[in-house]
Design a protein that fits this description.
With about 210 residues, the protein is of the alpha/beta class. Helices cover about 35% and strands about 30% of the residues. Residues about 1-15, about 20-25 and about 50-60 have low confidence and may be disordered.
C-alpha cells in the first residue's frame, strides 16, 4: 500500500513539473532585431541636422517611451469600417509583405511583444525614458491635468514614442508607430514600414499620419 501511495505521489509531481515547463515563456526570437531597429532610428534622429537646427538641445528635451502597441492584422477592411485609434495599436492589412499564410507566426510574435520588457541599457545613447504604465499613472492623478503633472517630473520635456517593432516572417521588414507629444494640442505621429537594405533599416512607406 505504501509503495502504491508513493508511486501516485511521484506521478503527481511529474505532471506538475511537466505542466510548469509548458508555461515557461518562449524565447523572443526577434529581441536583438527590435533593439537594432530602435537604436538605429534613435541614432538617425539625433543626427538629423534639421531637427538639431530646430532645437540645439534636442537630446535633453525629450523623454523616450518604447510603447507596447498591439498590431491589428486582418484581411482587407470592409467599406466604412473604421480603423482602431492610433493610441490603441497599429492597424495593418495582410498584403505582399505581411502574408496571411504567415498569420500563426504573427500571432506568436504578438504574444512576444506583450511580454516584452524594455531594457534601456540596450540603447546606445544616454537618454531619459518613461513607459506606458508611468504615463497612465500620471494621467490618473486627480489633483491636476496630465501635462501639468508630467512637467513636474520631467521639466517641460516632450514625449517621443516608438512602438516595439513588428517584423514580417522573413525579418526583412518591420512596422512601427512613432510620435511626438509636447502638449494637449501639440503633437503628431505616423505609422511606418521599414526594410533592411544593405544592413540599414530604410523607411519605405508611411501612413496613418496624425497631428493635433
Amino acid at each position: 500500500m505504501k509503495n502504491y501511495l508513493f508511486l501516485i505521489l511521484i506521478l503527481m509531481f511529474s505532471c506538475e513539473k511537466n505542466s510548469a515547463k509548458t508555461e515557461v515563456k518562449s524565447k523572443d526570437k526577434t529581441l536583438d532585431l527590435k533593439y537594432e531597429v530602435l537604436n538605429q532610428l534613435i541614432s538617425d534622429e539625433l543626427k538629423d541636422d534639421s531637427l538639431i537646427a530646430l532645437n540645439e538641445k534636442f537630446t535633453s528635451n525629450y523623454v523616450y517611451n518604447i510603447s507596447l502597441k498591439k498590431v491589428y492584422l486582418q484581411s482587407k477592411r470592409n467599406n466604412g469600417e473604421p480603423p482602431p485609434p492610433p493610441n490603441l495599436g497599429v492597424d495593418l492589412e495582410y498584403d505582399s509583405i505581411f502574408l496571411q499564410k504567415d498569420s500563426a507566426y504573427y500571432f506568436q510574435q504578438q504574444k512576444e511583444i506583450s511580454n516584452f520588457k524594455f531594457n534601456k541599457n540596450r540603447i546606445k545613447q544616454n537618454l531619459d525614458f518613461t513607459n506606458d504604465d508611468e504615463l497612465y499613472k500620471i494621467s490618473q492623478i486627480k489633483s491636476g491635468n496630465f501635462w501639468t503633472e508630467f512637467d513636474k517630473r520631467y521639466e517641460n520635456k516632450c514625449i517621443r514614442t516608438f512602438s516595439v517593432p513588428f517584423f514580417n516572417k522573413n525579418k526583412t521588414m518591420c512596422i512601427l508607430q512613432c510620435s511626438i507629444s509636447c502638449g494637449p494640442l501639440d503633437g503628431g505621429g505616423n505609422t511606418s514600414i521599414y526594410k533592411k537594405i544593405k544592413g540599414k533599416w530604410i523607411r519605405i512607406k508611411t501612413f496613418d499620419t496624425w497631428v493635433s
